[in-house]
Amino acid sequence: MLLGMAEILKMSGEKKRAVFVDGIKRSTEGRYEAILALTALHVSREYEQCGYSSVQQLAADKATQLSDRDVSDMLRVGEKLNEVPALDQAFRDGALCWSKVRALIPVVNKDNFKYWIAKATRMNTNRLEREVGGNRDPVIRNGMVALMAVTTHAWHRYQRLADCIRKMKGDDTLADSECFEVMLDDVELAYGIVPPAVETSAKTSVETTVETSVESSVESSVESSVERRSEATPHETASEPPAPPTHPLPASRHIPAGVRRKVMARAKGQCEMDGCGNSLSLEMHHFAVPFAQGGA
Protein backbone atom coordinates (compact mmCIF):
# COMPACT_ATOMS: atom_id res chain seq x y z
CA MET A 1 0.00 0.00 0.00
CA LEU A 2 1.31 3.41 -0.96
CA LEU A 3 2.09 5.89 1.76
CA GLY A 4 0.18 9.16 1.78
CA MET A 5 1.22 12.67 2.73
CA ALA A 6 -0.15 12.34 6.28
CA GLU A 7 1.88 9.19 6.98
CA ILE A 8 5.08 10.62 5.53
CA LEU A 9 4.77 13.87 7.43
CA LYS A 10 4.73 11.95 10.73
CA MET A 11 8.04 10.21 9.94
CA SER A 12 11.46 11.28 11.14
CA GLY A 13 13.91 12.79 8.68
CA GLU A 14 15.86 9.53 8.35
CA LYS A 15 12.66 7.59 7.65
CA LYS A 16 11.60 10.12 5.01
CA ARG A 17 15.01 9.81 3.40
CA ALA A 18 14.67 6.01 3.40
CA VAL A 19 11.24 6.28 1.75
CA PHE A 20 12.66 8.70 -0.80
CA VAL A 21 15.63 6.46 -1.70
CA ASP A 22 13.43 3.38 -1.88
CA GLY A 23 10.85 5.24 -3.98
CA ILE A 24 13.47 6.31 -6.52
CA LYS A 25 14.54 2.71 -6.99
CA ARG A 26 11.00 1.66 -7.77
CA SER A 27 9.20 2.76 -10.92
CA THR A 28 5.96 4.74 -11.21
CA GLU A 29 4.54 4.00 -7.77
CA GLY A 30 7.88 4.65 -6.16
CA ARG A 31 8.23 8.00 -7.89
CA TYR A 32 5.02 9.21 -6.27
CA GLU A 33 6.29 8.34 -2.78
CA ALA A 34 9.75 9.72 -3.57
CA ILE A 35 8.24 13.07 -4.58
CA LEU A 36 6.22 13.32 -1.39
CA ALA A 37 9.20 12.37 0.78
CA LEU A 38 11.58 14.76 -0.95
CA THR A 39 9.07 17.61 -0.72
CA ALA A 40 8.52 16.93 2.98
CA LEU A 41 12.27 16.88 3.58
CA HIS A 42 12.60 20.18 1.76
CA VAL A 43 9.80 21.92 3.67
CA SER A 44 10.86 20.65 7.10
CA ARG A 45 14.62 21.03 6.45
CA GLU A 46 15.07 17.61 7.99
CA TYR A 47 17.72 16.86 5.40
CA GLU A 48 20.05 18.61 7.85
CA GLN A 49 19.36 15.83 10.37
CA CYS A 50 20.53 13.38 7.71
CA GLY A 51 23.87 15.15 7.37
CA TYR A 52 23.16 17.15 4.20
CA SER A 53 23.34 20.90 3.68
CA SER A 54 20.54 20.97 1.11
CA VAL A 55 17.88 18.73 -0.37
CA GLN A 56 19.79 18.88 -3.67
CA GLN A 57 22.87 17.44 -1.99
CA LEU A 58 20.77 14.68 -0.45
CA ALA A 59 19.24 13.80 -3.82
CA ALA A 60 22.64 13.79 -5.51
CA ASP A 61 23.89 11.09 -3.15
CA LYS A 62 25.25 7.97 -4.81
CA ALA A 63 22.10 6.06 -3.77
CA THR A 64 19.92 8.18 -6.09
CA GLN A 65 22.23 10.42 -8.18
CA LEU A 66 19.59 12.95 -9.18
CA SER A 67 20.49 16.20 -10.95
CA ASP A 68 19.44 19.63 -9.66
CA ARG A 69 16.91 19.80 -12.49
CA ASP A 70 15.35 16.48 -11.44
CA VAL A 71 15.11 17.75 -7.87
CA SER A 72 13.52 21.01 -9.03
CA ASP A 73 10.90 19.14 -11.08
CA MET A 74 10.08 16.83 -8.19
CA LEU A 75 9.71 19.69 -5.72
CA ARG A 76 7.43 21.66 -8.05
CA VAL A 77 5.27 18.57 -8.53
CA GLY A 78 5.23 17.84 -4.79
CA GLU A 79 4.08 21.36 -3.96
CA LYS A 80 1.35 21.18 -6.59
CA LEU A 81 0.15 17.78 -5.37
CA ASN A 82 -0.28 19.25 -1.90
CA GLU A 83 -2.14 22.23 -3.38
CA VAL A 84 -4.45 20.24 -5.69
CA PRO A 85 -5.66 17.00 -4.00
CA ALA A 86 -7.41 15.79 -7.17
CA LEU A 87 -4.11 15.84 -9.05
CA ASP A 88 -2.49 14.00 -6.15
CA GLN A 89 -5.19 11.32 -6.33
CA ALA A 90 -4.89 10.95 -10.12
CA PHE A 91 -1.12 10.49 -9.82
CA ARG A 92 -1.40 8.10 -6.86
CA ASP A 93 -4.03 5.95 -8.64
CA GLY A 94 -1.98 5.79 -11.84
CA ALA A 95 -4.56 7.70 -13.90
CA LEU A 96 -1.80 10.16 -14.84
CA CYS A 97 1.85 9.25 -15.39
CA TRP A 98 4.80 11.30 -14.15
CA SER A 99 5.41 13.09 -17.45
CA LYS A 100 1.78 14.23 -17.70
CA VAL A 101 1.67 15.40 -14.11
CA ARG A 102 4.90 17.34 -14.63
CA ALA A 103 3.48 18.92 -17.83
CA LEU A 104 0.37 20.12 -15.97
CA ILE A 105 2.22 21.93 -13.17
CA PRO A 106 2.33 25.40 -14.85
CA VAL A 107 -1.43 25.55 -15.47
CA VAL A 108 -3.39 23.32 -13.10
CA ASN A 109 -4.90 24.76 -9.91
CA LYS A 110 -7.81 24.24 -7.52
CA ASP A 111 -10.21 26.04 -9.87
CA ASN A 112 -9.43 24.33 -13.20
CA PHE A 113 -8.17 20.86 -12.16
CA LYS A 114 -11.20 19.02 -13.61
CA TYR A 115 -10.62 20.51 -17.05
CA TRP A 116 -6.89 19.82 -17.15
CA ILE A 117 -6.98 16.33 -15.63
CA ALA A 118 -9.70 15.29 -18.09
CA LYS A 119 -7.68 16.74 -20.98
CA ALA A 120 -4.51 15.01 -19.80
CA THR A 121 -6.19 11.60 -19.72
CA ARG A 122 -7.24 11.97 -23.37
CA MET A 123 -3.95 13.27 -24.79
CA ASN A 124 -0.49 11.86 -25.20
CA THR A 125 2.30 13.66 -23.39
CA ASN A 126 3.67 15.56 -26.41
CA ARG A 127 0.29 16.97 -27.36
CA LEU A 128 -0.42 17.87 -23.74
CA GLU A 129 2.86 19.77 -23.47
CA ARG A 130 1.97 21.80 -26.56
CA GLU A 131 -1.49 22.53 -25.16
CA VAL A 132 -0.03 23.67 -21.85
CA GLY A 133 2.56 25.79 -23.66
CA GLY A 134 -0.22 27.79 -25.30
CA ASN A 135 -2.17 28.31 -22.07
CA ARG A 136 0.33 28.62 -19.24
CA ASP A 137 0.49 31.77 -17.17
CA PRO A 138 4.08 33.00 -17.43
CA VAL A 139 3.95 35.23 -14.33
CA ILE A 140 5.63 33.73 -11.27
CA ARG A 141 6.92 36.44 -8.92
CA ASN A 142 7.20 40.22 -9.02
CA GLY A 143 5.73 40.43 -12.51
CA MET A 144 8.51 38.26 -14.02
CA VAL A 145 8.18 35.08 -16.06
CA ALA A 146 10.01 31.80 -15.63
CA LEU A 147 13.33 31.20 -17.35
CA MET A 148 13.31 34.23 -19.67
CA ALA A 149 13.16 36.79 -16.81
CA VAL A 150 11.25 39.41 -18.78
CA THR A 151 8.33 41.64 -17.81
CA THR A 152 4.81 40.45 -18.49
CA HIS A 153 4.43 43.25 -21.06
CA ALA A 154 7.42 41.88 -22.97
CA TRP A 155 6.03 38.35 -22.67
CA HIS A 156 2.72 39.38 -24.24
CA ARG A 157 4.61 41.14 -27.05
CA TYR A 158 6.53 37.92 -27.63
CA GLN A 159 3.29 35.90 -27.74
CA ARG A 160 1.86 38.25 -30.38
CA LEU A 161 5.02 37.83 -32.46
CA ALA A 162 4.85 34.05 -32.05
CA ASP A 163 1.22 34.05 -33.23
CA CYS A 164 2.25 36.09 -36.30
CA ILE A 165 4.99 33.57 -37.09
CA ARG A 166 2.52 30.68 -36.82
CA LYS A 167 0.19 32.45 -39.26
CA MET A 168 3.01 33.21 -41.71
CA LYS A 169 4.23 29.62 -41.54
CA GLY A 170 0.68 28.29 -41.81
CA ASP A 171 1.27 25.98 -38.81
CA ASP A 172 -0.68 26.62 -35.60
CA THR A 173 1.14 23.75 -33.85
CA LEU A 174 4.54 25.50 -33.80
CA ALA A 175 5.82 25.54 -30.23
CA ASP A 176 6.98 28.75 -28.54
CA SER A 177 10.56 27.47 -28.69
CA GLU A 178 10.34 27.00 -32.48
CA CYS A 179 8.90 30.50 -32.94
CA PHE A 180 11.69 31.87 -30.78
CA GLU A 181 14.31 30.25 -33.03
CA VAL A 182 12.70 31.87 -36.09
CA MET A 183 12.92 35.25 -34.33
CA LEU A 184 16.59 34.64 -33.50
CA ASP A 185 17.32 33.84 -37.16
CA ASP A 186 15.68 37.08 -38.28
CA VAL A 187 17.46 39.20 -35.65
CA GLU A 188 20.86 37.69 -36.48
CA LEU A 189 20.19 38.29 -40.16
CA ALA A 190 19.14 41.91 -39.60
CA TYR A 191 22.26 42.69 -37.57
CA GLY A 192 24.62 40.64 -39.72
CA ILE A 193 25.51 38.34 -36.81
CA VAL A 194 26.95 34.97 -37.83
CA PRO A 195 27.35 32.45 -34.98
CA PRO A 196 30.94 31.02 -35.08
CA ALA A 197 29.74 27.42 -35.17
CA VAL A 198 27.36 28.09 -38.05
CA GLU A 199 29.95 30.11 -39.98
CA THR A 200 32.60 27.39 -39.62
CA SER A 201 30.36 24.47 -40.52
CA ALA A 202 28.51 26.20 -43.35
CA LYS A 203 31.32 28.23 -44.91
CA THR A 204 32.63 25.67 -47.36
CA SER A 205 29.26 24.31 -48.45
CA VAL A 206 27.68 27.76 -48.81
CA GLU A 207 30.57 29.20 -50.81
CA THR A 208 30.62 26.17 -53.09
CA THR A 209 26.86 26.34 -53.59
CA VAL A 210 26.85 30.09 -54.32
CA GLU A 211 29.88 29.96 -56.65
CA THR A 212 28.53 26.94 -58.54
CA SER A 213 25.11 28.59 -58.93
CA VAL A 214 26.61 31.88 -60.15
CA GLU A 215 29.03 30.20 -62.55
CA SER A 216 26.30 27.98 -64.01
CA SER A 217 23.97 30.97 -64.43
CA VAL A 218 26.66 33.11 -66.10
CA GLU A 219 27.81 30.32 -68.43
CA SER A 220 24.23 29.52 -69.40
CA SER A 221 23.49 33.19 -70.11
CA VAL A 222 26.65 33.68 -72.19
CA GLU A 223 26.12 30.51 -74.21
CA SER A 224 22.47 31.36 -74.92
CA SER A 225 23.40 34.91 -75.94
CA VAL A 226 26.19 33.73 -78.27
CA GLU A 227 23.92 31.18 -79.92
CA ARG A 228 21.16 33.75 -80.52
CA ARG A 229 23.58 36.28 -81.97
CA SER A 230 25.10 33.75 -84.36
CA GLU A 231 21.69 32.66 -85.60
CA ALA A 232 20.02 36.10 -85.82
CA THR A 233 20.08 38.38 -88.92
CA PRO A 234 21.35 41.99 -88.62
CA HIS A 235 17.77 43.27 -88.81
CA GLU A 236 16.57 40.87 -86.14
CA THR A 237 19.51 41.71 -83.91
CA ALA A 238 18.80 45.44 -84.07
CA SER A 239 15.01 45.27 -83.64
CA GLU A 240 14.49 42.33 -81.26
CA PRO A 241 16.50 42.13 -78.03
CA PRO A 242 17.66 38.64 -77.08
CA ALA A 243 15.26 36.70 -74.88
CA PRO A 244 16.33 36.33 -71.25
CA PRO A 245 17.81 32.95 -70.31
CA THR A 246 15.43 30.44 -68.80
CA HIS A 247 16.14 28.62 -65.56
CA PRO A 248 14.39 25.71 -63.89
CA LEU A 249 12.41 26.95 -60.88
CA PRO A 250 13.67 25.75 -57.51
CA ALA A 251 11.44 23.28 -55.67
CA SER A 252 11.11 25.55 -52.63
CA ARG A 253 11.20 29.28 -51.90
CA HIS A 254 12.69 28.66 -48.45
CA ILE A 255 16.22 29.98 -48.00
CA PRO A 256 18.21 28.29 -45.21
CA ALA A 257 19.29 30.63 -42.41
CA GLY A 258 22.96 29.86 -43.07
CA VAL A 259 22.68 30.91 -46.70
CA ARG A 260 20.79 34.09 -45.76
CA ARG A 261 23.50 35.06 -43.27
CA LYS A 262 26.22 34.44 -45.86
CA VAL A 263 24.47 36.56 -48.49
CA MET A 264 23.85 39.37 -45.99
CA ALA A 265 27.52 39.32 -44.93
CA ARG A 266 28.67 39.35 -48.56
CA ALA A 267 26.44 42.37 -49.29
CA LYS A 268 27.64 44.15 -46.12
CA GLY A 269 24.05 44.64 -45.00
CA GLN A 270 23.01 46.72 -48.04
CA CYS A 271 20.71 46.11 -50.98
CA GLU A 272 22.71 45.07 -54.06
CA MET A 273 20.17 46.32 -56.60
CA ASP A 274 21.72 48.95 -58.86
CA GLY A 275 21.32 52.45 -57.44
CA CYS A 276 19.70 51.33 -54.18
CA GLY A 277 22.09 50.64 -51.28
CA ASN A 278 19.26 50.61 -48.70
CA SER A 279 20.10 48.88 -45.39
CA LEU A 280 16.65 48.77 -43.75
CA SER A 281 13.92 46.09 -43.91
CA LEU A 282 15.90 44.00 -46.37
CA GLU A 283 14.76 40.64 -47.70
CA MET A 284 16.52 38.10 -49.86
CA HIS A 285 15.04 39.37 -53.13
CA HIS A 286 17.21 42.46 -52.63
CA PHE A 287 20.27 40.25 -53.17
CA ALA A 288 19.21 37.38 -55.43
CA VAL A 289 17.93 36.58 -58.90
CA PRO A 290 14.08 36.82 -58.93
CA PHE A 291 12.31 33.56 -58.08
CA ALA A 292 10.53 33.48 -61.45
CA GLN A 293 13.93 33.52 -63.15
CA GLY A 294 15.32 30.64 -61.15
CA GLY A 295 16.55 32.53 -58.12
CA ALA A 296 15.71 32.11 -54.46
Describe this structure in words.
This protein has 296 residues and is an all-alpha fold. 60% of the residues lie in helices and 2% in strands. Among the domains are: 138-191, no CATH class; 196-293, no CATH class. A two-stranded antiparallel ribbon has the order 1-2. The protein starts with a helix and ends in a 30-residue tail after the last helix.
Topology of this protein?
Elements: H1 5-9, H2 13-25, H3 28-44, H4 55-59, H5 68-83, H6 85-93, H7 98-104, H8 113-122, H9 125-133, E1 139-141, E2 144-145, H10 152-169, H11 176-191, H12 196-231, H13 234-239, H14 257-266
Brief summary:
With 296 residues, the chain is mostly helical.
Q: Report the C-alpha radius of gyration, rounded.
A: 30 Å
Structural class: mainly alpha
C-alpha geometry = elongated
Strand % is under 5%
Oligomer category: single chain
What is the makeup of the main sheet?
2 strands, antiparallel
Q: Using DSSP, what is the number of strands?
A: 2
Tally of DSSP helical segments? 14
- Helix fraction? 55-70%
Compressed to H and E, one letter per element, the order equals: HHHHHHHHHEEHHHHH
Mean pLDDT: 75
Q: What is the CA–CA distance across the termini?
A: 65 Å
Poorly predicted regions: none
Give me some keywords for this one.
single chain; 296 residues; mainly alpha; two-stranded antiparallel ribbon; 2 strands; elongated
